[in-house]
Fold each of these.
Amino acid sequence: MEATPLPFLHAIQTLKHLPRTGWLRMFDNNAESVESVAEHSFRVAILAMLAPENLNLDVGKCTEMALVHDLAESVIGDIPTWAKVPKERKYEMEHNGFQYLHNLLQTYSPKTATKISELWLEYEQGKTPEAKWVKEMDKFECLVQAHEYEQKTFGKKDFGEFQGQLKHIHSKEAKKWAESLSREREDHFAKREKRLPIIFITGDPVACDNIASRVSGELSLPHISMNKTLHEKAQDLEYRHHGIIKNCLDKRIEVPASLVVEVLENEIKAIGGRSWGIVSGFPNDTEQLAEFETKVQDCNCILQVEFPPRTNDQRQESSELEDGKSTWRPPKVPFKDVLKSSAAHFKVVGSITDQLTTSEMDLCHLAVNSIKAFITDGRFPEHSKSAS
């Protein structure tokens, strides 16, 4: 039989589905909610590639070491710290697992099999500069993931215990990264303690802008049009992402959700956030909404504007802005929340109402009255408190 790497590949595929057990108890043992060992190793490898040049490391070696450092877990599983397996015993188990993987790969490439085993051994011993850096990145990646879970769970779960990984960060360069992450974490929890009084108007782009402009004028509320703002950013040569946004708008490619949210958050900060504000043209889809909920705040107020299906000519005409650029794009995942009656305009995202078929003029009038009543009533959804 011809020697191939297939037996080795089949063995390590387990890592793509093997959950990192340290996170499981934070998510009630729901494996679908946590990262896999392969996902962790992938980002450790990226971090290895990002090693500062002044360290004079063999970056290629660091990257390869990061990719293989947890391969043995495809055989023995991910042994959590709380299992209290003695360090010597764990090493024996991992060494045995690597020997098995070595044997699977040896028939195809003895040289590569030996290289992988040697990289793992060098990592375990942790004596070379490359091994020390990868070990630090293994811990730093855990810190980053912990913070991302804090964002994902809106501060409802306490991941503070994972900050203990900081004690394994020793180099000046890695400490600088960790300090930056800590500041980001503090800023995030500070935002969670505040509530941005924002009402999103989403749906048909031009109709949303028209409604928002009228609401803004009649109620003296600041208005942010995401269509207009993104076009302004595309023309702002001093803005670092202007080229990306311009290319997306010109070629009708979705602007990355994370970038849209970054732009929006900065615009919201600019209007002060002390009184109610209107944002039109956001979110376009659930990806943008999820990004905003994760990075800024959850439980938001949204007015969904939906009209009966239009002809292609009407759709094209309504998608033209002042600068002649078309921004009409079908949403990836259309919302089901639509305008029905005064009592159902504002819900925590996720409510479902029936479609209302009416003219834009009537819709504007209804929206103005409803937003006025909503703000006067002060009905603002509860949001998550930080668990930090």
Amino acid sequence: MSMAEIHLALLLAGPRHGYDLKHAHDAWFPEERPLAFGQVYATLARLVRDGLAEAVDTRSEGGPERTLYAVTDAGRERLLAWLATPAPPAGVAGEDVVRKTVVALHSAAAGADAAAVLSGQRTAHLKRMRELQRSTPPAPGSASGLAEHLARRHALLHLDADLRWLDEAVEALRTSAAHDLATHSTPPATAPDDSPQAHHAPTQHSEESTR
């Protein structure tokens, strides 16, 4: 997610201060982790530095002074260009669930249990999916309602895909463990005797042929 462009979009409605931007962001993306105030002000500082936003006013409104920011023409162009550029498909290999599984597989010597990691992650995914399914559906007929519905559907479909991957990973781990067990339990083949006596000792078949 590009925080710069999202801040620019939030500013399209008119000048806003950081406190308002933080809450507007969290309302737009209820399934995301709440935005930290520090991230808001750091993003605004970069936007001002790059000429994409500007400070236009300072108000107290009975509390601490807050600076209002507005999007510039350059910021509006930047936002529209970003929206017109297709997002690259997310690489699942970079997601935490995959990272943790890979790390666990490579850390077995240190006591890591990949099967436990997969089981715990599956439980967490199922819990989150139930929470989304039980939550109150968004109000229809509005941009915010449609946006919330689409975001929820994306989250549910993503969770479902992750769960299918977790099931495959568990099965692959079981198959690998069974293969390792079978390999280690098979007695080693007896090595041929390379001693001189072995090469010159007559075999049963050779003795029978001389009779």
